[in-house]
User: Fold this.
Amino acid sequence: MFESLTEKLESIFKKLRGRGLLKEEDVDAALKEVRLALLEADVNFKVVKDFIQKVKEKAVGRESLKASAPVSRL
Assistant:
């Protein structure tokens, strides 16, 4: 289960790398995939909702992640 979630999240972040400034549309598309991956991994929907909301608030308008940037930088 953790391997599958890890692979999905890595794939999502790979799509975002190198885009420069993140647009709201980019963030929305990525967060939709993250939401789905977390729910498929049986993460509580309230936890997922709160997490997605906090990430979106911090991510819009920021530069895209570098190749090895940790998730916590969002």
